[in-house]
Amino acid sequence: MANTNNDINSVFIGNKPFMKYVTAVILKLNKGDVVIKARGKWITRAVDVAEVIKNDFIKDTEVTDVKIGSEEIKINENKKKRLSTIDLILSKKDK
Amino acid sequence: MANTNNDINSVFIGNKPFMKYVTAVILKLNKGDVVIKARGKWITRAVDVAEVIKNDFIKDTEVTDVKIGSEEIKINENKKKRLSTIDLILSKKDK
After folding, report:
1. Which residues contact B60 (CB under 8 A, 6 or more apart)?
2. Are A58 and A85 contacting, i.e. CB atoms less than 8 angstroms apart?
3. Which residue of A lies nearest to B48 if distances are taken between CA atoms?
4. B63 touches chain A (CB under 8 A)
5. Which of A22, A39, A51, B62 shows a CA-CA span of 20 to 30 A to A14?
6. What is the pLDDT along chain A (95 residues), one digit of tens a residue?
7. Residue B24 maps to which CATH number?
8. How many Cβ pairs closer than 8 A exist between chain A and B?
9. Which residues in chain B are contacts of A40 at CB distance < 8 A?
């Protein structure tokens, strides 16, 4: 199945080494805005990735939008769990 | 020292029981917008508090703004650590 445009510019944060995510976002920033996505306990890490890029790597980027939400995860037949989600939109500033 | 207006309407998320924060925010919502603040590992919890209030307790609230940032914490004489921060602004919708 072909990637949607949304997939191409998203980075989903998980348990890989921190700098892998920083590098992935920086590479994608050359092509346009990037959406840093995370859910549950990875939300803090998503904010860290955005802050490190903005402060240490590419100073002319900014977080243009932050969205929070919830997702329902089915644990088993009878049990559901709600997980918080975050979307951070990172853009290069106009020069 | 007198509280600033900002202090009165802020709830700072930490390691107290989760529902304490939910209750504190709900009470303050009667007086106006509330800023849910957290840093470091508590960021995920701040998002959870906002989502639980919005989805389970007061359906006519919405997250009107989310700000992320960084703070420098001095660990000792020579060492500093950067901590990410989040501010979530929760408002009651106009009826």
Report:
1. B92, B93, B95
2. no
3. A84
4. yes
5. B62
6. 444 445 669 999 999 999 999 999 999 999 999 999 999 999 999 999 999 999 999 999 999 999 999 998 888 888 888 999 999 999 998 75
7. 3.30.110.20
8. 47
9. 44
Q: How far apart are CA A40 and CA B85, in angstroms?
A: 16
Contacts of B74 (CB under 8 A, 6+ apart): B80
User: Hey, are the CB atoms on B47 and A82 less than 8 Å from each other?
Assistant: no
In 3D space, the residue among A70, B70, B79 whose CA is nearest the CA of residue B87 turns out to be B70
Q: Which amino acid is at A15?
A: N
Q: What is the ipTM of this complex?
A: 0.85
Q: Could you tell me how many residues make up chain B?
A: 95
Q: Are A87 and A66 in contact (CB under 8 A)?
A: yes
Token couple for A47: 């904010």
Cβ neighbours of residue A63 under 8 Å, at least 6 residues apart? A50, A54, A88, A89, A90, B68
Reported residue count of chain A is 95
Q: How many domains does chain B have?
A: 1
